[in-house]
Specification:
By secondary structure, the chain is an alpha/beta fold. The protein is 34% helix and 25% strand. The chain contains 8 helices and 10 strands. A 6-stranded mixed sheet has the order 6-7-8-3-9-10, with helices on both faces. It has a 4-stranded antiparallel sheet with strand order 2-1-4-5, with helices on one face. A hairpin with a 6-residue loop joins β9 and β10. α4 packs parallel to α5 and α6 crosses α8. The longest helix is centred in the last third of the chain and has 17 residues. The protein is globular and about 50 Å long. The termini are far apart.
């Protein structure tokens, strides 16, 4: 199978008057269609920087990043980016918030409007379509933000700690919710997280980055013997503890 995303020997340094700071060093990995990849690593190692390179907000100093065989550019419509905050606009209803990206790109086609209607119904937001963001729980707001992103039909979805602002119980429920949605929609996704359990429960593979300058320390395939794999089911699987201990040890090798 041909990879959807190819990150090939990518390096980046930050430059300031005081000198140069190496952020990423010779990062390489592939991501295949329909695969869910999680990235973990020490705080400040460059996980979010890597996402910014993948979506074209930054350009690598060395190496190349290809999506479906072609280079990524700033504002690449093939990529959706979901941030830590939902960034819903309070003066717009949930329905109008979900339409925002399509409005900006002038892509309010009947096909995409029907797709939004299906998602609102399927994922329990249809009856809240005329509410404003402040009337919804944090979890429902994140669900609306995800639908807004998926409405653009991106080939690749980037998730930069999208559950970190939620309390623990809500975080578990929302990560389960969004994990199910992404698998049902057959989306290819990369999740950056500090939460080892979250990475294991959601991902098909986990990339462990070293401390800065970040290198790929290890890539761990995650497989569960489950008939219906969901994030919550994965957390209760017998293999979960072994994966957790393995990743924990890797993260603490150089601590």
């Amino acid at each position: 199978m041909k990879p959807l995303l190819e990150v090939i020997d990518v390096s980046l340094s930050y430059h300031a008057v005081s000198g140069e700071t190496a952020a990423l060093s010779h990062i390489s990995f592939n991501l295949f269609p329909g695969e869910f990849l999680a990235i973990v690593g020490p705080s400040g190692c460059g996980k979010s920087t890597l996402l910014n390179l993948i979506c074209g907000l930054l350009a690598p100093e060395q190496g190349v990043i290809l999506l479906d065989g072609s280079p990524i550019n700033l504002g690449d419509c093939r990529i959706g980016y979901m941030l830590q905050k939902d960034h819903l606009l309070e003066w717009r209803t949930i329905y109008k918030n979900v339409l925002l990206g399509l409005e900006i790109r002038k892509e309010l086609t009947r096909e995409k409007l029907d797709y939004i209607e299906d998602m609102l119904t399927t994922y329990g937001l249809d009856k809240f379509r005329n509410c404003h963001p402040s009337q919804l729980s944090g979890g429902m707001r994140q669900r609306a933000a995800l639908i807004r992103t998926l409405a653009m039909k991106p080939e690749l979805l980037l998730l930069d700690e999208p559950f970190s602002a939620l309390d623990y119980q809500t975080r578990l429920n929302v990560s389960d919710d969004i994990g199910k949605i992404l698998r049902q929609e057959k989306k290819t996704a990369i999740l950056v997280t500090h939460d080892i359990a979250e990475a294991i429960s959601m991902a098909d593979r986990v990339i462990i980055l070293s401390s800065r300058p970040a290198t790929v320390q290890k890539i761990i395939p995650v497989k569960f013997d489950l008939e219906n794999r969901t994030p919550l089911n994965s957390r209760n699987a017998p293999e979960f503890k072994s994966y957790f201990n393995l990743i924990w040890k890797e993260l603490n090798k150089n601590a």
